[in-house]
Design goal:
The chain has eleven helices and 16 strands. About 35% of the residues lie in helices and about 25% in strands. A hairpin with a 6-residue loop joins strand 6 (about 85-90) and strand 7 (about 100-105). Strands 1, 2, 3, 4, 5, 6, 7 and 16 form an eight-stranded mixed beta sheet that branches. It has two domains: about 1-110 and about 300-325, ornithine cyclodeaminase, domain 1, CATH 3.30.1780; about 125-295, Rossmann fold (3-Layer(aba) Sandwich). The protein is of the alpha/beta class and about 325 residues long. Helix 3 (about 105-125) packs across helix 11.
């Protein structure tokens, strides 16, 4: 049997951001209709807490897909030449369970994470929203700038990072790459001031965004904190917002941005207005007030990786992209 190996650069070419947004919309529609399975992910931290290994299987019903992402997460890689997420998505066919493809998980994760935020933005942000604040300056900062441009007319971008030099370097490179001026800010509050779109994409363990800074009508995508003890938002930011999540069970298990206000009894579980699938299927209303604050809290779902990987594999077959190798065994 032959397996297709698809690397980082190939994934980026095969999965344009705007196309991935639509792939994610289809996936959440399938999820909402019961055509997806994925258990809570398993995360094993190293004894010194420097990094973790995550294992995430999933299934989609139509078109059928079966797979698993195995990925290491080393936040300290921001100070090295390596990405924080390293690993592979394994894609299987569903008739006999044969392995079809091994796909770079870092590239898949980077694109689909921002594409899900773009989908939430398309469903929740004001139509004219275009004043963007990005808190964080790593891979997801650039991906989220591209994702926001795919769904809203971005006219101003400000970026803040916990390391000011990183913000300046990001602003310089992103301005050229994305065709919009990106202004580095020394203070997170100044970056957020009057913004109507905010994306938090940091590796912070303490809040970097405070609710009192949020302008009327803003939409927030909170992405960086996907497992305890990471947290980007203070309690006031959550309390002030109409809160939506990618999956309720995952947010309650893994999102300290939500878990801590719940633990402190500042909010109850009913504060979660719905899941992204509910919005896609129009089971719940999104933005009900032009001056209201909406918040999408993302922790990332294995089925997002599967849907993105399936599209990458389909495109690779169409375009003859990828490296073939013999792998697996059959009966003699």
């Amino acid at each position: 049997m032959q397996v297709t190996i698809i690397g980082h650069r190939e994934v980026s070419e095969l999965l344009p951001m705007a196309e991935c947004v639509d792939v994610m919309a289809d996936m959440f529609r399938a999820l909402g209709e019961g055509e997806a399975l994925f258990p809570q992910r398993s995360v094993m931290w190293l004894p010194d807490q420097r990094g973790a290994l995550g294992m995430m299987p999933s299934w989609l019903g139509e078109p059928p897909a079966l797979g698993a992402k195995v990925v290491s997460v080393f936040p300290g890689n921001s100070e090295t030449r390596y990405e924080s997420h390293q690993g592979a998505v394994l894609l299987f066919e569903t008739a006999n369970g044969c392995l079809q493809a091994i796909i770079d998980a870092g590239a898949v994760t980077a694109i689909r994470t921002a594409a899900v935020s773009a989908l939430a933005t398309r469903l929740l942000a004001r139509e004219e929203a275009g004043d963007l604040a990005i808190l964080g300056s790593g891979t997801q900062a650039g991906m989220h700038l591209a994702a926001m441009q795919a769904v809203r007319p971005i006219r101003r971008v400000r970026v803040w990072s916990r390391t000011s030099g990183h913000a300046r370097r990001f602003a310089e490179s992103a301005s050229e790459r994305y065709g919009v001026e990106v202004m580095p800010m020394d203070d997170a509050r100044d970056a957020v001031d009057a913004a109507d779109l905010v994306c938090t994409v940091t590796g912070a363990k303490e809040p970097v965004l405070q609710g009192e800074w949020l302008a009327p009508g803003v939409h927030v995508n909170a992405v960086g904190a996907s497992v305890p003890p990471f947290r980007e938002l203070d309690t006031a930011a959550v309390v002030r917002s109409r809160l939506f999540v990618d999956r309720r069970a995952s947010a309650l298990a893994e999102a300290d941005d939500v878990r801590i206000p719940l633990r402190d009894k500042t909010i109850d579980e009913d504060h979660i207005q719905g899941e992204l699938a509910d919005l896609v299927l129009e089971r719940v209303g999104g933005r009900t007030d032009p001056n209201g604050i909406t918040l999408f809290k993302s922790v990332g779902l294995a089925v997002e990786d599967l849907a993105a990987a399936r599209r990458v594999y389909e495109r690779a077959l169409e375009m003859g992209v990828g490296t073939l190798m013999d792998f697996g065994s059959g009966r003699a």
